[in-house]
Design brief:
- By secondary structure, the protein is α/β, with parallel strands linked by helices.
- The protein has one domain: Trna Endonuclease, Chain: A, domain 1 (3-Layer(aba) Sandwich).
- Helices cover 33% and strands 22% of the residues.
- It is built from five helices and five strands, in the order ααβββαβαβα.
- It has helices spanning 2-6, 10-24, 68-78, 95-101, 114-124, and strands at 27-31, 42-48, 51-60, 84-89, 109-112.
- A five-stranded mixed beta sheet has the order 1-2-3-4-5, with helices on both faces.
- A hairpin with a 2-residue loop joins strand 2 (42-48) and strand 3.
- Helix 3 packs parallel to helix 4 (95-101).
- The chain is elongated and about 80 Å long.
- The N and C termini lie far apart (52 Å).
């Protein structure tokens, strides 16, 4: 599944991020226009009881790990307008990026690497289908005992 995500175009991966957030319960999820994204790929709202949280998201289809500078740039783009960020990456994040994601006093950025994305896809049934797996086994005696 991860290979399929990596084969998507940038725009397709952003649309996928939108669909995953919708499957998770977000509403009003939009993908920004490429030329006017202001450092974010999309945004939406997450309802938490009576409150609604504005959340922005960023999508990177990278082979190498995403570093702290990318997380810091994303946070800078969402600061003041959004309460949280979600950063999707088909690869993984460096330890410095992970440390920076939950910086005290700053907007939290939830990091979702390729493995986490696939887990959410399975959990929410997005782009996957569950198929039963049947196991057949011998029952001792059925083939050797006389039934009559």
């Amino acid at each position: 599944m991860l290979e399929q995500l990596q084969s998507l175009s940038s725009h397709q991966f952003e649309q996928f991020g939108r669909k995953l957030l919708l499957a998770y319960g977000f509403v009003d999820v939009k993908v920004t226009q490429v030329s006017r994204d202001g450092g974010i790929d999309g945004y939406g709202k997450l309802r938490l009881g009576l409150a609604t949280m504005n959340v922005a998201f960023q999508c990177k289809r990278w082979q190498g790990n995403v570093g702290r500078p990318e997380v810091d740039k994303f946070r800078g783009a969402i600061q003041g307008e959004f309460e949280q960020g979600v950063f999707f990456a088909t690869s993984d994040f460096t330890p410095d990026a992970r440390d920076a994601s939950l910086k005290s006093g700053a907007v939290p950025v939830r990091l979702l690497n390729g493995e986490s994305i696939v887990t959410l896809m399975i959990e929410k049934g997005l782009g996957v289908q569950r198929v039963p797996l049947y196991a057949y086994y011998d029952r001792p005696g059925d083939l050797t005992e006389d039934q009559g």
